[in-house]
Specification:
- The protein is of the alpha+beta class and about 200 residues long.
- The protein folds into two domains: about 1-30; about 30-195.
- About 30% of the residues lie in helices and about 25% in strands.
- It contains three helices and 13 strands; from the N terminus they run H-E-E-E-H-E-E-E-E-E-E-E-E-H-E-E.
- The chain has helices at about 1-20, 70-90, 165-185; strands at about 30, 35-40, 45, 100-105, 110, 110, 125-130, 130-135, 150, 150-160, 160-165, 185, 190-195.
- The strands form four sheets. Strands 2, 4, 10, 12 and 13 form a five-stranded antiparallel β-sheet that branches. Strands 6-7-8-9 form a four-stranded mixed β-sheet, with no helix packed on it.
- A hairpin with a 2-residue loop joins strand 7 and strand 8 (about 130-135).
- Helix 2 packs across helix 3.
- The radius of gyration is 23 Å and the shape is elongated.
- The termini are far apart.
- Residues about 10-25 have low confidence and may be disordered.
Length: about 200
């Protein structure tokens, strides 16, 4: 009887240790997490130059939905990142009272390349599904632009909130869903959750 009891206790302890209790598993408690991601930002999080770099291309130098300046682009990015994160936290049943959300996103000036194969401006872009996915530096009037995939690292910090990694994974998945479907972000890779 005692051996059976002792054996079942040892097996229970071994199983508990292997499932991540006290480790980096789903039961790890994380307070004030930081979500680090690589995204192709929505075009609304960028802004166009005050005038076209190429005098012949003045009618299409901006993208529809693009901000007029860096202030508006940063405000829109901040509002949409906050909205997506707050919706995600609420979906995971984590209390929102006193929670603060911050991010390190900075907007980018980019010009529409429509109708241009050669550009003299500083940076041209291509949009797919509402996100800026490719950029090319203006190469001059004689050289064709070469577009490269574009993504940017963004960190979103949540303050005054704590939960298990399991709950933060629910937040992460809902956050990605909200940013993708509601605001046209495109994720490049996985979102990583870390402690501050």
């Amino acid at each position: 009887m005692f051996r059976t009891l002792l054996g079942s206790v040892l097996i229970g302890v071994a199983v508990a240790c292997s499932t991540g209790l006290g480790g980096a598993g789903d039961y790890e408690y994380i307070e004030d997490p930081v979500f680090t991601m690589e995204i192709s930002p929505p075009i609304g999080w960028t802004y166009f130059p005050t005038k076209a770099s190429d005098a012949a291309n003045t009618q299409v130098w901006f993208f529809p939905g693009q901000a007029n300046d860096s202030v508006h682009a940063d405000q829109r990015a901040d509002a949409e990142l906050r909205a997506a994160m707050m919706d995600a936290i609420a979906a995971a049943n984590i209390p929102l009272y006193g929670v603060d959300i911050a991010n390190d996103y900075t907007s980018l000036q980019v010009e529409n390349s429509l109708g241009n194969t050669k550009g003299v401006g500083p940076l041209y872009g291509k949009v797919e599904s509402g996100a800026l996915t490719q950029t090319a530096a203006g190469a001059g009037a004689a050289v064709d632009m070469i577009f490269q995939p574009y993504s940017k690292q963004v960190k979103v910090s949540v303050y005054n909130a704590g939960a298990t990694r399991y709950n933060w994974n629910i937040v992460k998945n809902t956050f990605m869903q909200k940013l993708t479907l509601n605001f046209n972000s495109r994720f490049v890779g996985e979102v990583v959750i870390s402690k501050t």
